[in-house]
Specification:
about 130 residues; mainly beta; 2 domains; 4-stranded mixed beta sheet; 3-stranded antiparallel beta sheet; 7 strands; about 45% strand
Length: about 130
């Protein structure tokens, strides 16, 4: 929960489902549900396995350049004794008619998260 609180989410509700603890977190991207599984298996490596099928990553659009976002997130995580695990450092990518600055990090359970910072129409941009 502390990891996602560093991303701007806040605990909205805590509850149990059978033997598992769960919570809803509300934030800038809507609502997340986190579940604590008593005997978890490691998450699949969706980012590193080119044949992986299924949930790939959560994508969050941010309102400032990614270097600042990652610096702030790294400092907030360090305060909780958690490292910032960067899978892909900030870089430009054109998706359709839009150019973004993108970066990927990994959450404490190994799931990839993508940050998108809009730079403008493809071929233009700022930053």
């Amino acid at each position: 929960m502390a990891f996602y609180e560093c991303l701007g989410f806040a605990v909205e509700e805590r509850f149990t489902t059978g033997m598992t603890l769960a919570c809803w977190l509300a934030g800038p991207a809507g609502r997340l549900e986190l579940i604590q599984v008593p005997l978890p298996r490691p998450a699949a490596d969706a980012f590193g396995d080119e044949h992986y099928v299924g949930y790939y990553h959560l994508s969050l659009e941010v309102a400032e350049p990614l270097t600042a976002v990652l610096e702030r997130l790294g400092a907030a995580l360090a305060a909780h004794d958690q490292p910032l695990d960067v899978l892909l450092p900030p870089q430009r990518q054109t998706i359709g008619p839009q150019t973004y600055e993108i970066a990927f990090i990994r959450d404490p359970d190994g799931l990839p998260l993508e940050f998108l910072y809009p730079l403008g129409p493809a071929g233009g941009g700022h930053g």
